[in-house]
């Protein structure tokens, strides 16, 4: 029994005794009861304060945990999801596809062409401006349902949900055309930036999403080796 209940029980017992008493004994008992009631009320107020503080602290802890979680999956420079967050999303999307809860998904791996030259020629601050601008362009070009992540360095991953090949190709080609036609604004002036991409559809024969990422990466590699400033569609996984 808690302190609260013990105090209630004692007050009730004393009140029952008080009903059968008169004179000095009744006055002494009444004094004790009044003291107990005062103590009880102070205790009740303190418990309410502690309860409110506990609720507030729990809410603050939950908010802090959410912020820490967001920080752990967010790229601080671009504000996009980072590689860790992308892995979590890919795992969820793959499980849904394997359970036939979705028709599968498309992946794009996209890499800024000659980004090292930008850093070496103009410095890392300008390189960061290019990355931020490039990220904003990607976000504007894709749909709200698509996930865009900074996969690492100057490489980005795009997860296209609930789409078909024609729409995926159209989105990617539109982004490349936009990138070619509009230089990136930087502190040293506009810079012409291009990119190379590999487009790949998840397939049940893939070894989870790792297989899909691998095929997208292979298509990206061929796009860069064959001239850059282009995108290529990945080959289907081999038959068992």
Description:
There is one protein chain. The chain has helices at 3-18, 23-72, 83-98, 115-122, 124-141, 165-181, 208-225, and strands at 106-112, 147-152, 155-160, 195-201, 230-233. α5 (124-141) crosses α6 (165-181). 60% of the residues lie in helices and 12% in strands. The protein has a five-stranded mixed beta sheet, sandwiched between helices. It has two domains: 3-72; 83-233, Reverse transcriptase/Diguanylate cyclase domain (Alpha-Beta Plaits), CATH 3.30.70. The model has no long low-confidence stretch (mean pLDDT 87). It is of the alpha+beta class and 240 residues long.
Q: How big a fraction of the residues is strand?
A: 5-15%
CATH top level class name of the largest domain: Alpha Beta
- The strand line-up of the biggest sheet is 2-3-1-4-5
What would you report as the Rg, rounded to the nearest angstrom? 33 Å
Instruction: Identify the quaternary structure here.
Output: single chain
Count of DSSP-assigned helices: 7
Q: What is the number of independent domains?
A: 2
Q: What distinguishing features does this structure have?
A:
Alpha-Beta Plaits, 240 residues, alpha+beta, 7 helices
Put the structure in a nutshell.
With 240 residues, the protein is of the alpha+beta class. It is built from seven helices and five strands, in the order αααβααββαβαβ.
Detail the topology: elements first, then pairings.
Elements: H1 3-18, H2 23-72, H3 83-98, E1 106-112, H4 115-122, H5 124-141, E2 147-152, E3 155-160, H6 165-181, E4 195-201, H7 208-225, E5 230-233
Helix pairs in contact: 1-2, 4-5, 5-6
């Amino acid at each position: 029994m808690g302190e609260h209940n013990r105090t209630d029980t004692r007050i009730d017992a004393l009140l029952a005794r008080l009903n059968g008493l008169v004179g000095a004994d009744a006055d002494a008992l009444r004094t004790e009861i009044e003291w107990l009631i005062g103590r009880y009320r102070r205790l009740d107020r303190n418990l309410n304060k502690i309860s409110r503080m506990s609720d507030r602290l729990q809410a603050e802890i939950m908010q802090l945990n959410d912020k820490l979680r967001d920080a752990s999956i967010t790229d601080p420079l671009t504000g996009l999801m980072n590689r860790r967050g992308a892995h979590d999303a890919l795992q969820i999307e793959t499980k849904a596809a394997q359970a036939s809860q979705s028709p599968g998904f498309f992946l794009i791996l996209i890499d800024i062409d000659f980004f090292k030259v930008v850093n070496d020629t103009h410095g890392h601050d300008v390189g960061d401006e290019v990355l931020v601008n490039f990220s904003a362009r990607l976000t504007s070009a894709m749909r709200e349902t698509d996930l865009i992540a900074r996969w690492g360095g100057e490489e980005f991953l795009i997860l296209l949900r609930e789409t078909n090949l024609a729409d995926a190709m159209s989105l990617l080609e539109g982004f490349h055309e936009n990138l070619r036609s509009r230089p990136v604004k930087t502190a040293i002036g506009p810079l012409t930036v291009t990119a190379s991409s590999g487009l790949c559809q998840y397939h049940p024969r893939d070894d989870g999403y790792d297989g899909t990422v691998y095929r997208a990466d292979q298509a990206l590699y061929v796009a860069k080796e064959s001239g850059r400033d282009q995108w290529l569609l990945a080959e289907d996984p081999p038959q068992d």
